[in-house]
Design the sequence.
């Protein structure tokens, strides 16, 4: 079988409807568009949300909330994922990216305290939660916020 031999299943495709070919065809004259009006014209019709000049719904409803332009978006990683890196004593953002534990880093990496750690590590990240910091220092490690 080649690409040139592929064709749709029988009965799955219907020929295009030829409109405007006389009254005998069943769709002559107005071609199935009814009589005069905006919707019968070529390219006619109203845009989405238009309600005939009435104030549209999206303008009648009040605005809510705001977008904080100073928000920092951290990529989160849990302590259990860092504990799985048994051969490393110093954890840096470059190491986490190279091991593919994090991706799409925008403003930095934040470590959360889900999981346990039993060995001393030196952690250098952009943010760390209080519980993660307590667990690392209890295991004899250090945390540095860069």
Sequence:
């Amino acid at each position: 079988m080649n690409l040139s031999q592929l064709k749709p299943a029988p009965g799955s495709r219907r020929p295009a409807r030829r409109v405007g070919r006389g009254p005998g065809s069943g769709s002559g004259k107005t071609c199935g568009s009814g009589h005069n009006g905006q919707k019968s014209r070529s390219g006619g019709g109203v845009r989405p949300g238009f309600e005939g000049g009435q104030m549209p719904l999206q303008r009648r409803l009040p605005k809510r909330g705001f977008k904080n332009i100073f928000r920092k978006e951290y990529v989160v990683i849990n302590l259990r994922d860092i504990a799985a890196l048994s051969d490393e004593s110093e954890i840096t953002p470059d190491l986490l990216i190279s091991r593919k534990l994090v991706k799409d880093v925008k403003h930095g990496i934040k470590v959360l305290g889900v999981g346990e750690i039993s060995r001393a590590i030196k952690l250098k990240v952009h943010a760390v939660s209080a519980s993660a910091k307590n667990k690392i220092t209890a295991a004899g490690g250090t945390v540095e916020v860069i």
User: Anything to note?
Assistant: The longest strand covers residues 75-78.
